[in-house]
Amino acid sequence: MSDDAMVVVANLVSRSEALTIAALLDSAGIVVHVGGEHYAGATLNILAIGGFRLTVPASQWAKASDLLRDVAAVPPTFSRAVQRRALILLAIVFTLITLPGALLFVEDDDSLFEMAVALVLPLCGTPVAPQGRGDYFLLPATA
Protein backbone atom coordinates (compact mmCIF):
# COMPACT_ATOMS: atom_id res chain seq x y z
CA MET A 1 0.00 0.00 0.00
CA SER A 2 1.42 3.37 -0.95
CA ASP A 3 1.88 6.08 1.68
CA ASP A 4 -0.53 8.43 -0.05
CA ALA A 5 -3.39 5.88 -0.09
CA MET A 6 -6.27 6.72 2.24
CA VAL A 7 -7.16 4.11 4.87
CA VAL A 8 -10.48 3.85 6.70
CA VAL A 9 -9.79 4.33 10.40
CA ALA A 10 -13.41 4.55 11.59
CA ASN A 11 -16.95 4.16 10.33
CA LEU A 12 -19.29 6.00 12.69
CA VAL A 13 -23.06 6.37 13.01
CA SER A 14 -23.14 9.67 14.90
CA ARG A 15 -22.21 12.86 13.06
CA SER A 16 -21.12 14.54 16.28
CA GLU A 17 -18.82 11.63 17.16
CA ALA A 18 -17.35 11.66 13.64
CA LEU A 19 -16.62 15.40 13.74
CA THR A 20 -15.21 15.16 17.26
CA ILE A 21 -12.84 12.32 16.32
CA ALA A 22 -11.87 14.17 13.14
CA ALA A 23 -11.06 17.32 15.15
CA LEU A 24 -8.99 15.23 17.56
CA LEU A 25 -6.99 13.68 14.72
CA ASP A 26 -6.59 17.05 13.02
CA SER A 27 -5.29 18.66 16.22
CA ALA A 28 -2.64 15.94 16.42
CA GLY A 29 -1.43 16.85 12.92
CA ILE A 30 -3.07 13.88 11.20
CA VAL A 31 -4.74 14.57 7.87
CA VAL A 32 -8.31 13.25 8.07
CA HIS A 33 -11.22 13.16 5.65
CA VAL A 34 -14.79 12.68 6.87
CA GLY A 35 -17.03 11.05 4.28
CA GLY A 36 -20.60 12.36 4.57
CA GLU A 37 -19.47 15.29 6.72
CA HIS A 38 -22.09 17.63 5.31
CA TYR A 39 -24.97 15.19 5.73
CA ALA A 40 -26.99 16.51 8.65
CA GLY A 41 -30.24 14.57 8.52
CA ALA A 42 -31.95 13.52 11.73
CA THR A 43 -33.07 10.18 10.35
CA LEU A 44 -31.43 6.81 9.99
CA ASN A 45 -30.64 7.45 6.32
CA ILE A 46 -26.99 7.77 7.29
CA LEU A 47 -26.95 4.03 7.88
CA ALA A 48 -28.11 3.49 4.29
CA ILE A 49 -25.16 5.46 2.89
CA GLY A 50 -22.67 3.64 5.12
CA GLY A 51 -22.20 6.03 8.02
CA PHE A 52 -19.56 8.70 8.43
CA ARG A 53 -16.30 7.21 7.17
CA LEU A 54 -13.07 8.69 8.54
CA THR A 55 -10.01 8.10 6.40
CA VAL A 56 -6.37 8.98 7.01
CA PRO A 57 -3.24 8.59 4.86
CA ALA A 58 -1.60 5.16 5.20
CA SER A 59 1.60 6.84 6.42
CA GLN A 60 -0.30 8.28 9.43
CA TRP A 61 -2.46 5.23 10.18
CA ALA A 62 -0.24 3.99 13.02
CA LYS A 63 -0.20 7.40 14.70
CA ALA A 64 -3.98 7.73 14.33
CA SER A 65 -4.48 4.20 15.69
CA ASP A 66 -2.39 4.92 18.77
CA LEU A 67 -4.27 8.16 19.44
CA LEU A 68 -7.70 6.59 18.95
CA ARG A 69 -6.80 3.58 21.07
CA ASP A 70 -6.10 5.93 23.98
CA VAL A 71 -9.09 8.24 23.49
CA ALA A 72 -11.91 6.55 21.59
CA ALA A 73 -11.59 2.99 22.88
CA VAL A 74 -13.95 3.67 25.78
CA PRO A 75 -17.56 3.03 24.71
CA PRO A 76 -19.79 6.09 25.05
CA THR A 77 -22.40 6.19 27.78
CA PHE A 78 -25.83 7.61 27.16
CA SER A 79 -27.78 9.53 29.73
CA ARG A 80 -30.76 7.62 31.12
CA ALA A 81 -32.39 10.98 31.98
CA VAL A 82 -32.36 11.97 28.30
CA GLN A 83 -33.84 8.59 27.36
CA ARG A 84 -36.63 9.03 29.92
CA ARG A 85 -37.43 12.52 28.63
CA ALA A 86 -37.51 11.24 25.06
CA LEU A 87 -39.92 8.47 26.04
CA ILE A 88 -42.17 10.95 27.85
CA LEU A 89 -42.17 13.22 24.78
CA LEU A 90 -42.93 10.25 22.54
CA ALA A 91 -45.83 9.24 24.81
CA ILE A 92 -47.26 12.79 24.68
CA VAL A 93 -46.94 12.96 20.89
CA PHE A 94 -48.44 9.48 20.53
CA THR A 95 -51.39 10.48 22.71
CA LEU A 96 -52.01 13.74 20.83
CA ILE A 97 -51.89 11.97 17.47
CA THR A 98 -53.78 8.81 18.29
CA LEU A 99 -56.45 9.84 20.75
CA PRO A 100 -58.60 11.84 18.29
CA GLY A 101 -58.20 9.10 15.68
CA ALA A 102 -59.09 6.39 18.16
CA LEU A 103 -62.29 8.19 19.10
CA LEU A 104 -63.30 8.44 15.43
CA PHE A 105 -62.61 4.77 14.79
CA VAL A 106 -64.57 3.66 17.84
CA GLU A 107 -67.59 5.62 16.65
CA ASP A 108 -67.38 4.21 13.11
CA ASP A 109 -67.03 0.62 14.37
CA ASP A 110 -64.13 -0.21 11.98
CA SER A 111 -61.89 -3.21 12.38
CA LEU A 112 -59.15 -3.26 14.98
CA PHE A 113 -56.45 -3.82 12.35
CA GLU A 114 -57.39 -0.72 10.37
CA MET A 115 -57.43 1.30 13.56
CA ALA A 116 -53.99 0.08 14.61
CA VAL A 117 -52.49 0.83 11.19
CA ALA A 118 -54.02 4.30 11.08
CA LEU A 119 -52.83 5.14 14.58
CA VAL A 120 -49.26 3.86 14.26
CA LEU A 121 -48.58 5.05 10.72
CA PRO A 122 -48.09 8.76 11.62
CA LEU A 123 -45.35 7.77 14.07
CA CYS A 124 -43.27 6.18 11.30
CA GLY A 125 -42.15 9.64 10.21
CA THR A 126 -40.79 10.59 13.62
CA PRO A 127 -37.12 11.54 13.23
CA VAL A 128 -34.63 9.80 15.47
CA ALA A 129 -31.01 10.43 16.31
CA PRO A 130 -29.01 7.24 15.92
CA GLN A 131 -26.99 6.42 19.00
CA GLY A 132 -24.73 3.49 18.55
CA ARG A 133 -21.16 2.40 18.62
CA GLY A 134 -19.15 2.93 15.47
CA ASP A 135 -16.53 0.62 14.06
CA TYR A 136 -12.84 1.45 14.44
CA PHE A 137 -10.21 -0.08 12.19
CA LEU A 138 -6.94 0.34 14.07
CA LEU A 139 -3.51 -1.11 13.52
CA PRO A 140 -2.43 -3.57 16.22
CA ALA A 141 -0.62 -1.93 19.11
CA THR A 142 3.16 -1.99 18.90
CA ALA A 143 4.93 -3.38 21.93
How would you describe what is shown here?
By secondary structure, this protein is of the alpha+beta class. The chain has two domains: 6-77, Alpha-Beta Plaits (2-Layer Sandwich); 80-125, no CATH class. The protein is 46% helix and 13% strand. It contains five helices and four strands; from the N terminus they run E-H-E-H-E-H-H-H-E. The chain has a four-stranded antiparallel beta sheet, with helices on one face. Helix 4 crosses helix 5 (112-120). The longest helix has 29 residues, at 80-108. The radius of gyration is 22 Å and the shape is elongated. The two termini are 23 Å apart.
Give structural attributes.
four-stranded antiparallel β-sheet; Alpha-Beta Plaits; 143 residues; alpha+beta
CATH architecture classification of the largest domain: 2-Layer Sandwich
Secondary structure category: alpha+beta
Name the helicity range. 40-55%
Q: Could you say how many structural domains there are in total? A: 2
- H-E order: EHEHEHHHE
Give the tally of β-strands: 4
Provide the β-strand percentage band.
Answer: 5-15%
Q: Distance between the terminal alpha carbons, to the nearest Å?
A: 23 Å
Count up the helices.
5
Q: Low-confidence parts, pLDDT < 50 over ≥5 residues? A: none
Radius of gyration: 22 Å
- Quaternary class: single chain
Sheet with the most strands: spatial strand order: 2-3-1-4
The CATH class of the largest domain is identified as Alpha Beta
Enter the CATH topology name of the largest domain: Alpha-Beta Plaits
Mean pLDDT: 77
**How does the overall form come out from the CA principal axes?**
elongated
Largest sheet: 4 strands, antiparallel
